[in-house]
């Protein structure tokens, strides 16, 4: 039996679904959801657009290269970041390439230069492949809608009013990241992975994975690594650090990684995924929820603001050029 449960969001009463989601969030911090309502056509278009982008020559992809270390959007080449560094683990850079976008239709806070420089930095769009921008924006919006519905289930699962999080995510600064893990004709360096062990930074992540060699693993209570199932038509959901802070660690932001394919794997070991990182409003205060503090307990974490926390964590992962 997999450590990560599969939950049909369309099955049963909302309260029962919320209870099942809450149990998964408390036990492992990961779940796979089906019955999510995201149209297959939107998923397929987004997936195909991502594949076509990564199939472009390197020079074409570099036309939308992140213009400086720490810039959040655009193309990041293979070995452009090390996610393990977000936890202070100085491993070699990750064996992946990515393309990221952020919110395109929000007005930034008027008094925050950091917000404008980071979350509201300009998205960088390639001129090819054809239809890329439209497909990716439709995917972003569909996943943003799903994230909002999941946050309402989270509220119910935490014994809060269903709309509790609405005002904290109505200007969400979420990011969408297309990921490509190329074949590995040259053996990795010692300790080098497709994505080093890390936790995510925001409220939740919605991942569309590919069932291919060298996939996603989550660390269980026993310290062992467990494969996360790639369910056809399903999304992998995991909690981020802000949700753990909100819940005083009653819900888990769990360590996970993407491993290398077996050295003896036959054929191509290329792998693709698309990750939607849902992030509350830039100025949303993340403080212990009233339903997550028992008698005599104190909050484990001081309050933080969503945006500055995200910017700090993101910049810690960047692979700076050699000097």
TrEMBL record:
Its cofactor is Fe(2+). Keywords: Ethylene biosynthesis, Iron, Metal-binding, Oxidoreductase. Residues 171-280 form the Fe2OG dioxygenase domain. One of its GO terms (biological process) is ethylene biosynthetic process. It catalyses: 2-oxoglutarate + O2 + 2 H(+) = ethene + 3 CO2 + H2O; L-arginine + 2-oxoglutarate + O2 = guanidine + L-glutamate 5-semialdehyde + succinate + CO2. Pfam families: 2OG-FeII_Oxy, DIOX_N. It is an enzyme of class 1 (oxidoreductase). It comes from the Bacteria. Pathway: Alkene biosynthesis; ethylene biosynthesis via 2-oxoglutarate. GO terms for molecular function: 2-oxoglutarate oxygenase/decarboxylase (ethylene-forming) activity; metal ion binding. Its EC number is 1.13.12.19, 1.14.20.7. Belongs to the iron/ascorbate-dependent oxidoreductase family. This is 2-oxoglutarate-dependent ethylene/succinate-forming enzyme. It comes from Inquilinus limosus.
């Amino acid at each position: 039996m997999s450590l990560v449960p599969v939950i049909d969001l369309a099955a049963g009463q909302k309260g029962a679904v919320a209870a099942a989601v809450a149990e998964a969030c408390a036990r492992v911090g990961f779940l796979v959801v089906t019955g999510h309502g995201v149209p297959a056509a939107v998923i397929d278009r987004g997936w195909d657009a991502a594949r076509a982008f990564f199939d472009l020559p390197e020079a074409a992809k570099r036309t939308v290269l992140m213009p400086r270390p720490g810039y959040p959007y655009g193309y990041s080449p293979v070995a452009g970041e090390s996610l393990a560094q977000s936890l202070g683990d100085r491993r070699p850079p990750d064996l992946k390439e990515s393309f990221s976008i952020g919110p395109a239709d929000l007005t930034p806070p008027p008094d925050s230069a950091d917000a404008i420089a980071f979350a509201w930095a300009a998205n960088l769009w390639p001129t090819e492949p054809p239809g890329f921008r439209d497909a990716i924006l439709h995917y972003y919006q569909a996943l943003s809608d799903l994230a909002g519905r999941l946050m309402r289930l989270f509220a119910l699962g935490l014994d809060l009013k269903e709309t509790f999080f609405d005002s904290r995510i109505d200007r969400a600064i979420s990011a969408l990241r297309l990921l490509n893990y190329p074949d590995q004709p040259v053996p990795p360096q010692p300790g080098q992975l497709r994505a080093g062990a890390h936790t995510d930074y925001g409220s939740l992540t919605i991942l569309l994975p590919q069932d291919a060699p060298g996939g996603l693993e989550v660390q269980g209570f026993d310290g062992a690594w467990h494969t996360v199932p790639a369910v056809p038509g399903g999304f992998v959901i995991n909690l981020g650090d802000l949700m753990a802070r909100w819940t005083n660690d009653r819900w888990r932001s769990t360590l996970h990684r993407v491993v290398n394919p077996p050295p003896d794997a036959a054929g191509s070991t290329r792998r693709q995924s698309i990750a939607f990182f849902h992030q509350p409003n830039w100025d949303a205060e993340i403080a212990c929820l009233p339903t997550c503090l028992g008698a005599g307990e104190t909050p484990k974490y001081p309050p933080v603001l969503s945006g500055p926390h995200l910017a700090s964590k993101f910049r810690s992962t960047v692979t700076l050029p050699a000097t």
